[in-house]
Amino acid sequence: MISEKKIPAHVKVVEVGPRDGLQNEKNIIPAHQKIELIHRLSATGLSVIEATSFVSPKWMPQMADALEVFAGIKHKAQISYPVLVPNLKGLERALSSGVEEIAIFGAASEAFSQKNINCSIAESLERFQPVCERALQENLKIRGYISCVLGCPYQGEVSVNSVADLAKRLIELGCYEISLGDTIGAGTPLQAQRMLQAVADQVPMTQLAIHFHDTRGQALANIYACLALGISIVDSSIAGLGGCPYARGASGNVATEDLVYMLHGMEIETGIDLTKLIEVGHFVQDVLGCQNRSRVGQAGILKSS
Ligand code: HMG
Ligand code: MG
Fold this sequence. Notes:
Layout (H helix, E strand, L loop, with lengths): L11 E4 L1 H5 L9 H12 L5 E2 L2 E2 L12 H7 L10 E2 L3 H9 L4 E7 L2 H8 L3 H17 L3 E7 L12 H14 L3 E6 L6 H12 L7 E5 L6 H9 L5 E4 L19 H10 L8 H15 L6 H5 L6
Parallel strand pairs: 1-2, 1-9, 3-4, 4-5, 5-6, 6-7, 7-8, 8-9
Helix pairs in contact: 2-3, 2-11, 7-8, 8-9, 10-11
């Protein structure tokens, strides 16, 4: 049962389009267009824009230009530009380009961990340990992702305890925030609440973020259900781009335009200019020649927000 008592007054929106969105595009987008997208997003009031990922180009050719993209960004002081890093090699590359924040990424499902990063959950934690130690020595902030928190494309159900245990381990490794990813968009609102509550019993709610893919049209409903439990950090992707090549059939993230429209309609502050955001959605749609999955991007804004 949804109670609205804990709905926050402000939500931090973490834009993941340049990474989660573009990693899933069949065609490789030129670095200069990725940089242009990040610059346009930087002018909307967003405070976090995930820029790229320093993963193996053999596994993810779409992100092979991470160094060039990161070097090309004109950083704004009040914006964080985190990057994904899977191992020490990725960290070295990220450090050489001057990043200030990284994100490590594990999974609550053994099968997905193997498919996505080629190791078990336990091995991934062993791999993350030296990455986090080094990153902390370098004064980097570390975000942690957990994939498949509401279901796995290979093994089906995922227990909430395995999500909560992994979240606790990632915090112990030095992550300041854990993003809970419904990678395949399988969850529904009550499941999302039960999972979030189980994790919040182990890790403070203020250190948790939610990351919903919209495969079955549940993302906004799930976000609303989690807002009611007090979550105040939400990941989303411009124009609803996104997905993961290792989660076949999973569609994009919740569209940032739709998320911000809902939050502003609920009188929740984001600091984001929705009109500018919609323009960026149209820009990226033109670049990719794709259908914008944001409903707000297609329909426009009804009231000033
Ligand atoms: P591996 O094949 O086991 O690693 O991959 P390896 O150490 O044997 O290396 C293989 C080759 O890659 C070697 O090159 C390495 O040097 C190179 P070779 O000697 O054959 O020429 N290599 C690298 N090159 C550049 N940067 C690196 C790097 N690492 C190795 N960092 C590995 C293991 C983790 C590297 C690989 O599996 C990988 O990169 N996986 C990433 C997959 C990925 O990007 N998935 C999508 C992101 S996660 C996601 O989308 C979910 C999320 O959005 C949340 C959600 O929705 O749930 C975050
Ligand atoms: Mg994702």
